[in-house]
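Lab meeting, item 3. Inverse folding demo.
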């Protein structure tokens, strides 16, 4: 089981944990360790985050 702190913007929009840059890094780390991602339960401690718009981006507020 892997638990992330809170989702990033892509994760919050899709509702799936570790699909952005952190997900790519996690995939590489799991591959190097010889662990299939499908065999690991991956989640975040916080389901959604509060945000404020900044141009085209959504920036995190303090959790």
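The presenter then showed the designed sequence:
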């Amino acid at each position: 089981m892997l638990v992330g702190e809170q989702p990033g913007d892509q994760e919050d929009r899709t509702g799936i944990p570790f699909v952005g840059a952190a997900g790519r890094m996690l995939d590489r780390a799991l591959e190097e360790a010889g662990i299939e991602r499908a065999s690991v339960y991956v989640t975040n401690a916080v389901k959604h985050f509060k945000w404020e718009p900044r141009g085209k981006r959504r920036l995190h507020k303090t959790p």
